[in-house]
Amino acid sequence: MWDVLSERVVEIAKRVTAAHGGRNVRVLVPRSKGSPDDTGRPLFLVDLDEGRNLFDLVALTEDLGEALGAEVNVLTEGSLSPYLREAVLAEAIAL
């Protein structure tokens, strides 16, 4: 697994997110390999500018994954389950 908090990844994540009308990039670092909830993919949380939609989020996910050379998940805070929101936001690290 690559380091999702490295300078290279942070710069790429911010640049690609901004290109898609996003800001306030946060990441959840994947659990250790072999843990039951390890998907192997980091989860990026972003805020999208007003007027952006699901198509922008999908394009952001694809472009960010391509730029990083790995599969990633990208969600907005509003798309988080209300049952998980508090826990996810508590673990998210601002980039």
Question: Would you give an account of this structure?
Answer:
The chain is an alpha+beta fold and 95 residues long. The protein has one domain (7-94): Beta Polymerase, domain 2 (2-Layer Sandwich). Helices cover 37% and strands 20% of the residues. A four-stranded mixed sheet has the order 3-2-1-4, sandwiched between helices. Helix 1 (7-19) runs antiparallel to helix 2. The mean pLDDT is 88.
Strand content: 15-25%
Helix/strand/pairing class, anyone? Answer: alpha+beta
> How many domains in all?
1
Name the CATH class: Alpha Beta
Distance between the termini: 18 Å
| Oligomeric grouping of the chains | single chain
Number of H/I helices: 3
What's the average pLDDT? 88
Strand order of the largest sheet: 3-2-1-4
How many strand units? 4
Shape category: globular
CATH fold call: Beta Polymerase, domain 2
CATH superfamily heading: Beta Polymerase, domain 2
Order of helices and strands: HEEHEHE
